[in-house]
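Lab notebook, page 48
Experiment: co-folding of the full assembly
Goal: obtain a model of how the components sit together before planning crosslinking
Operator: M.T.
Materials (sequences as entered):
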Amino acid sequence: MESPVDKAMNTQASRVLIHDPTLRDGHHAVRHQLDRDQLRAYAAAADAARVPVVEVGHGNGLGASSLQIGRAKLSDTEMLSVVRDALTHSRMGVFMAPGWGTSTDLRNAVSRGADVVRIAAHCTEADVTERHLVVVGELGAEPHGVLLMSHMASPDQLAEQCALLAEFGAQAVGIFDSAGYYLPADVTERITAIVEAVDVPVPVLFHGHNNLGMAVANSVAAVQAGARIIDGTARGFGAGAGNTQLEVLVAVLERMGHSTGIDLRAILHAADTAQERLMPAPPTIDSVSLVSGLAGVFSGFKTPVLETARREGVDPVEVFFELGRCQVVAGQEDLILDVARQLKEM
Amino acid sequence: MTVKGRVRVAIVGAGLIGIDLIEKIQRSEALDCRLVVGRDRQTLCLRRAAEMGCATAAGGIVSLLESGLGFNVVFDASNADCHAEHWSRLQATGATLIDLTPAQLGTMVVPTVNGADALAHRHINLVSCGGQAAIPVLHAIAQHSTIEYVEVVCTGASASAGRATRLNLDHYIETTQAALRAFTGAEDVKVMVNLSPAQPAPPFRVAMTVLTPGVQLDPIRATVEAAAGKVRAFAPGFAVTSCAVTDGRISVVVEVTAEGGRIPRYAGNLDIINAAAVLLAEQHPTIRSR
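Observation: model returned without errors.
Model output:
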């Protein structure tokens, strides 16, 4: 039997595909308020840099605009139309979690030109994705299956869940470090287990967050363990402390001898464009983000936790530790107020 | 053996919902559970149904039709994709069909809102567990104010959501949204569903947010409590855990625990829809004319 490392080496060893969710994950940092001009400016810059996939949408994906998670400035349809028009080379990606969006949202997104569709589930709940992965395949788009908050499951569980995603028809499978909790050794162990469990033609993907300053190092560990699709966002624009910084990731991977097909100068320009046009300030690991990572809480909770903590007069750090203790998962923003009030009464 | 004067019922679907339903039927003095049908003899739940003393059959709806037993009420606890076929096959038998799947084909019924004359319909749909938890409260609020927008976020324990539920999340969301529109008059509605793997497993939780201009807290709190009291009459694990009004926005959270013995306490989602199903079946004319 070939070892996972050999298996990884055999699957186009030097090629790493970069998937760019700047215009989706970044939405968490600006309360889902990007406008048309902002979407257009960054999509065009990423396209010029030959970024393979440019993902767009509400921070929690298709159908997730809500009072619970935050209402987006633009509808899904508006966002997709603007980005589609701005792309000439890059493929357009979208993200959807069953329970937040439905097949109706998927049909709309593919009809608006989505090429790559990520169907997401909490890391232990892969079986909720079966119907939607099939729908995406039938619509002719490329279905990916992704596991959120993956630090909450063991390497074996993740491997089993990823194998299920592949069985349902996902053409790429992998894990999100949604809380930014991992250290490189954690990633190595998990990606190795997943690569071993999933058949060769299905590439393994990794999506990092930078709460502990490890996003690029974790992404490198993922590649070394056999991952072949890595997510990165311009300047790290994303939930909480931000994502793996795209332009740094590209530079590091190229130095390591992996080709990404991305033009370095053009991606630097795209990152500058992102900083100028999309964000009030580039993401930083502030104290609250550091704690949110340590506590293992979904990075997208940062803005609502800060708002609720201020309103209720409690320490956001304590709110994050308590949310971590309650093992909250993405989508459970309604618990933030409960936790803040409990702390207030203590 | 038929128990005289009782409503003769059958269950299609031997999953988590079916098992709790059997227990509730067995506790009811008005109902006689005559048959439980599943698709596969080997499923754990069908074996458990037999252990609970029920006649069982493994051939799905066909074995129910071929059983030769007459039923007043059939509960469909299978899955939304099979429901249309179940209804078309049962229609000729004269049985009333109470649908616990989110198939959105029968008349939507929420007992405390429109349950009184529900049995005038032969085909009843119970919306969803989230619908059964949210609509009593939201309907009551809608009697006092014009709702511009309503949002419902349902979070169930991972272990309380079986295979059919997981495959049917789209149906669940669409059917619950249709019921919210029908029962509250709001055009703009949104339903979201989360599954929580936390340990210990949390109770079923339904967070509702209503946008309605010029609303006051005091009358709303009383309205919500009154609506909850009516639900507690048949689903005692139903509790309002928070109720707040700020700037034209009403936020209500309810949690539901299961009080039955065979399903875990956290599985309030199963408990509330099954309690509603049993309550409606107990109103069958067979009982009324006794």
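Interpretation: Chain A touches chain B at residues 64, 66-68, 98-100, 102-104, 122, 124-125, 127-128, 130-131, 152, 326-329, 331-332, 334, 337-338, 341 (CB under 8 Å).
Next step: discuss with group before ordering constructs.
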